[in-house]
Amino acid sequence: MAAVKIGLHIADFTYPSGPAGLADDLTRVVTAAEEAGFARVSVMDHVWQIASHGPPEHAMLEAYTTLGYLAARTERVELLAWVTAVTYREPGMLAKLVSTVDVLSEGRAWLGIGAGWNEPEANGLGLPFPPLAERFERLEEALQVVLQMWAEGDAPYEGKHYTLARTLNAPQPLQSPRPRILIGGGGERKTLRMVAQYADACNLFAGPELERKLGVLRGHCEALGRPYEEIEKTAQILLDVGEKGEHLDTFLETLRGLAALGVQAVQGKLPNVWEPERMRFFAREVVPVAATF
After folding, report:
1. How far apart are CA 44 and CA 179, in angstroms?
2. Among 3.80.10.10, 3.20.20.30, 3.20.170.30, 3.40.1400.10, what is the CATH number of 5-290?
């Protein structure tokens, strides 16, 4: 087993103080997370709230505007969208967005990306949402575009879905050789193959299929000649230790089980994150323990 990083996923923007207090609430939450030792902070790339967190009418902020705001209010935590829907932004602009966050955060941005799934919100706001097979084609091309824009040169890119006449990107991200890339999803034939080929991290659900999914990823790495160990294994999990910490032991046992499978980081929503004691409890009882696995 190895140390497990804890990350905060901000999936809910409907706080008791309402939209007028949201900027202050977010500042307080992310600075508390940084002080508590959380490794990274993520936001969803949705334009409506998703059913697992509330009705669509609940508050949802645009991801990259929010990340820019969070970059100005933090100093150490890594920042990313968990995860960007590939069809919501053209890949040249997406590379530029992540580059901008990386420069303004002094080298703390990731690209989290996936094929996207929320057809109702896309249709609602008139965002592109082609069939699944095409979304996966676009995902692979987007990864190629981003990697090309973060490398030397400004050669054209021509794919089936995207054509860029000049892949100029100035300024380049501060991270060397580039911001890390996380691909969300556990599809065994396409998604995990793309993780092995293009990404620095995978994102899987912490469920009964996790061990098998990691085995599939290992197989793709072997087929492509990529060291499996190069890829950071992350899992989504609810950061729920109970109202007063009554589920702490169970939660830590879950983390130990994930670490035994090779998971190196978890990312999750902290219930009632606006309550200061929730973060203080994690700082005392969870983050330092997870670092010792």
Report:
1. 18
2. 3.20.20.30
